[in-house]
Write a structure and sequence with these properties.
The complex is a heterodimer of chains A (198) and B (375). Chain A contains nine helices and five strands; from the N terminus they run H-E-H-E-H-H-H-E-H-E-E-H-H-H. Chain A has a five-stranded mixed sheet with strand order 1-5-4-2-3, with helices on both faces. Chain A is globular, with a radius of gyration of 16 Å. Chain B is built from twelve helices and 16 strands. In chain B, the strands form three sheets. In chain B, strands 1, 2, 5, 6, 7, 8, 9, 10, 11, 13, 15 and 16 form a twelve-stranded mixed sheet that branches. Chain B has a two-stranded antiparallel sheet with strand order 3-4. In chain B, helix 5 packs across helix 11 and helix 8 crosses helix 9. The longest helix of chain B is centred in the C-terminal third of the chain and has 15 residues. Chain B is globular, with a radius of gyration of 19 Å. The N and C termini of chain B lie close together (10 Å). The chains are: A alpha/beta (198), B alpha/beta (375). Strand 3 of chain A pairs antiparallel with strand 6 of chain B, so a sheet runs across the interface.
């Protein structure tokens, strides 16, 4: 699904890196030692903000990923083989960094965590999101699905709140194929449902 | 909706089951020198003590940890789960699943899952050192939303020499040992372990025919949004997580707080500030303990390991002391337990708190069976 298709949906954005785009998210971060995938997720996040304006300070951030921060992890594992500490990459190599950097960029203090997996994780994340909105745990939730796909990186961000709750309830994630990552499943899901969303 | 805990156990450097809890009550520690745990390893000479499992050797440790766990602490009802939620930070940093704990979890579950049983949907929560607590919170939400009636949470993490070297370089590993809330604390003692908690709805509990041993009575999650490695100094956002967890109960009924209590100067100060913000004057009186000096900081498993300890303290009516604490930091003004302390009959709840890299704060309130009987 192209980014153009998504421009008509105010609460969904997709981002792919082009050249230095992973640094062009425009957030002012004092710590930019993040995995490249985090940069792609921040670009998608910036796109969401450009459509929706500033978000609530209690916005929850849920990251979904299969690959995690693969680049940083590789630097750490290579460092271990070479008996070199790579503490800066190590501290920023967890999958939760996809959510934590987003919270820092937004200065958001709501729940912030990551789920790893494919369709099972996406289905669960959507269910948890609905539960959090219904129980007033938070007004808004950013669902960030980001993954390395061979040599590319993709990130898809959904802004969920009471206004699209009804639509979310109708989203059906098919059983885990075992190969697809949450980002690609979500892109296809949104493409399939694009007419409904419009 | 009531979310019952049917089973809780942990495998740590101090053992598992009843033996683990009795050792904690006796103030014992399973920590040992890093140089003894990882002989002939350079770069760990100033690594103090670690909480590694005695029967786990080498760099690729997660498969052996699972093998031991399935033999020792994973009960048969685990395989009746309608959903499994794993928890881990990074897992092994060596081998085929280096830095991808979900793949490691899936491999181990498929290896041990009985062929005649349906393999359930499985997700892994990765939220640094709050992973285990957050997985328990997610399991609670899954039951509350009606997504599943029986959910198993399995939190695990490993400490290989290479990972210890990263923590030594970061300055988070103590030069000697974890001394939570101590005036002379200088870091934590990392370790490894695995914990299992099984939660269920009333229908799930009835289907299994098991009695509840405790309940999940509340929870809270926040993010400092401040720094990747350091907590927000005045603890205001951690306080929000704690306040959310205890919002529905009278604070006087919370008898014990199993603190994150890592023993790093920054963590313990921020956590103390958070407890004072959340509990007010009650912060000076409530029993506070940390198990990092006994079990080590088991990374992504630590939240669930400590929830297991908290559940056992409710069941046994006694709170364990804080191993490693010698001289309480006078600036902290907390009632940190130096000795095992009996649970008062008015204490119906215990709280488990964890913090993690990325500024994540999590708290889960656990209720005694007597609370369940009232509802």
């Amino acid at each position: 699904m192209s980014a153009e298709n998504l421009t008509t949906i105010p609460w969904a954005c997709h981002s792919e890196p082009v050249g230095n785009a992973i640094k062009d998210h425009l957030f002012s971060l004092k710590d930019s030692r993040y995995d490249p995938l985090v940069g792609v997720a921040l670009c998608a996040l910036r796109n969401i903000l450009s459509k929706n304006g500033k978000l609530s300070a209690s916005t929850a951030v849920i990251a979904l990923t299969d690959s995690g921060c693969r680049s940083h992890v590789k630097r750490v594992t290579d460092g271990i083989i070479e008996s070199r500490p790579r503490q800066a990459f190590f501290a920023r190599g967890g999958a939760n960094m996809l959510a934590s950097y987003a919270s820092i960029a937004l200065e958001s203090h709501g729940p912030c965590f990551s789920m790893s997996g494919g369709a099972d994780a996406l289905r669960f994340a959507l269910d948890v999101s609905l539960q959090m909105i219904r129980s007033n745990t938070c007004e808004q939730i950013l669902l960030i699905a980001a993954d390395y796909e061979q040599t590319d990186m993709h990130a898809m961000v959904l802004l969920l709140d009471g206004s699209n709750q009804e639509y979310l309830e109708k989203l059906r994630v098919q059983n885990d194929s075992g190969t697809a990552n949450p980002s690609s499943i979500l892109r296809n899901l949104m493409k399939f449902n694009i007419d409904t969303v419009k | 909706m009531t979310v019952s805990i049917l089973y809780a156990d942990a495998m740590t450097c101090l053992g598992c089951g009843e033996a683990l809890f009795q050792s904690l009550l006796a103030g014992k520690s399973g920590l040992r020198p890093a140089t003894e745990a990882f002989p002939n390893t350079s770069g760990i000479e100033h690594g103090g003590q670690v909480g590694v499992l005695a029967d786990v050797l080498g760099n690729q440790r997660v498969p052996k940890i699972f093998e031991l766990a399935f033999g020792k602490i994973v009960p048969d009802i685990f395989f009746e789960s309608e959903m499994v939620i794993g928890a881990c930070s990074l897992g092994d940093l060596t081998g085929e699943h280096a830095g991808n704990p979900r793949l490691a979890l899936m491999q181990q579950l498929r290896l041990h899952w009985p062929k005649r049983k349906i393999f359930p949907p499985t997700t892994l929560i990765s939220n640094a050192c709050s992973s285990g607590t957050d997985a328990l919170i997610m399991a609670t939400q899954a039951v509350q939303s009606g997504l599943a009636d029986i959910v198993s949470v399995i939190a695990f993490d490993s400490l290989e020499p290479g990972k210890l070297i990263q923590h030594i370089a970061l300055g988070t590993q103590s030069r000697d040992r974890a001394k939570p809330f101590d005036a002379n604390r200088n870091g934590t003692s990392f370790g490894e372990g695995l914990a299992v908690i099984i939660v269920a709805s009333d229908q799930g509990r009835a289907r299994l025919g098991w009695n509840a041993i405790a309940s999940v009575a509340g929870f809270g999650m926040t993010c400092d949004a401040y720094d990747i490695a350091a907590p927000f100094p005045d603890g205001q956002y951690a306080a929000r997580a704690i306040s959310a967890a205890i919002a529905a109960v009278n604070i006087n009924t919370v008898g014990y707080i199993n603190a994150h209590g890592s023993g790093t100067p920054l963590n313990d100060a921020a956590e103390c500030a958070a407890l004072h913000r959340a509990l007010g004057a009650g912060a000076q009186h409530v029993n506070v303990g940390s198990t990092k000096g006994a079990l080590g900081h088991t990374l992504g498993a630590t939240g669930l390991v400590e929830s297991v300890v908290a559940v056992n303290s409710l069941r046994a009516n006694i709170y364990p002391p804080t191993a490693g604490l010698q001289e309480l930091d006078p600036t902290l003004a907390l009632n940190v337990l130096k000795q095992a302390t009996l649970r008062d009959c008015s204490h119906e709840y215990v709280l488990s708190v964890t913090f993690g890299f990325g500024g994540v704060n999590s708290a889960v309130l656990l209720g005694a069976v007597s609370c369940l009987q009232k509802t």
